[in-house]
Structures are given as structure tokens and as C-alpha cells.
Amino acid sequence: MNATIEELLNNQIKFEAQASIQYLAMASWADAEGYNGVAEFFYNQSEEERTHMTKLVKFVNERSGKVIVPALDAPKPAYNGLNELFEKFLESEEFVTQQINHIIFECLQHKDYNVHNFMQWYVSEQLEEEAVARTLLDKLNIIGGDKSGHYLFDRDILTIAASHEDE
Ligand code: FEO
Predict the structure, then answer these.
(1) Residue of the CA atom closest to atom 2 of ligand 1
(2) What are phi and psi of 61, to 5 degrees?
(3) Is residue 155 a contact partner of residue 37, using CB atoms and an 8 Å limit?
(4) pLDDT reported for residue 167
(5) By alpha-carbon position, which residue is closest to atom 1 of ligand 1?
(6) CA 68, CA 7: separation in Å to the nearest integer?
(7) Average pLDDT, the chain
(8) Which tens digits make up the pLDDT trace of 54-86?
(9) Residues 122-146: what's their mean pLDDT?
(10) Is 133 helix (H, G, I), strand (E, B) or coil?
(11) Which residues does a 6 A CB cutoff place in the pocket of ligand 1?
(12) Burial of 135 by CB count in 10 Å (0-12 exposed, 13-18 middle, 19+ buried)?
């Protein structure tokens, strides 16, 4: 495997792992604040990111690359409210998308069509995750600071996210 591509895939393993523990911290914060639906959403997201990470680890090993399981930064533990929580979620997903686009670019530069092909799954996954994050943030922006709106958002979040994924 090309050394640059190998390094980028290892970086991506870290970004997915970082997202996984960040979303776990978000779930835990929401749980403690009494937002059970939001907590469930982020517990699920955290699991998903873990599978994204593991898929990369297995792929690099299959290609006889060297995997470096990374040390992670401490996740942000607390938020001012749901709006900040979902702003950070969208930022995180946009960051991951940029990194995936960068890998795709480098695959083409190095003519590594195998990794390029593998990464297409991540491209589709990012499209979906960014769309869900935007939908949820849009809804929160409409709700503003309204407490009963937040109550309904928390009650309905899993349905909103699931219906979006079916589209
Ligand atoms: Fe696997 Fe949502 O980044």
C-alpha cells in the first residue's frame, strides 16, 4: 500500500474513533440532562462510528498495511444546550467528510483504485449523516429556546432521523 494512503487511512481510523467517543460523551451529557431520545440517538451514532473505525482497521490489515490504533483526545464533556450539541455534531460530520474527500483525492493522485472503491461506502455514509445532522439542526433552529419544543424534539428525534434515512 502506498505510504501516503496508508497514513491517511490511519488518520481516518483516528477521526472515526474520535467521533465515536465524542458522540458517547454527547449521549452521556444528554442522558444526564434528561433528554432520553437525544441520548439514544447519540449512543447509536457512537456505535456507528465505531463500526466505521473497525471497517478501516480490517481493510488496512487485509491490504497488508500497518494499522496504528491511536490515542484519542478527551471529548468535550458538556454543552450549553441542544443547539450547541447539534452544531458540534454537524461540524464533526463536516470535518469527517472533508477528510474522506481528501483521501479520495489522494487515491486518484496515486492511482489506488482499490482504496478509492472502498472509500465510496464512506462517501455515501457521510452524505446521509450530514443530511440527518442538518435536518435536526434546522428543526432546533425553528424551535429556538422553547422548552416544550425541546421536549417534542427529544420525543421525536429517533423517528425524524429514521424517516430521513429511508428517503
Ligand atoms: Fe464515520 Fe460520521 O463519520
Answers:
(1) 93
(2) -65, -40
(3) yes
(4) 52
(5) 49
(6) 9
(7) 96
(8) 999 999 999 999 999 999 999 999 999 999 999
(9) 95
(10) helix
(11) 16, 19, 49, 52, 93, 96, 129
(12) middle
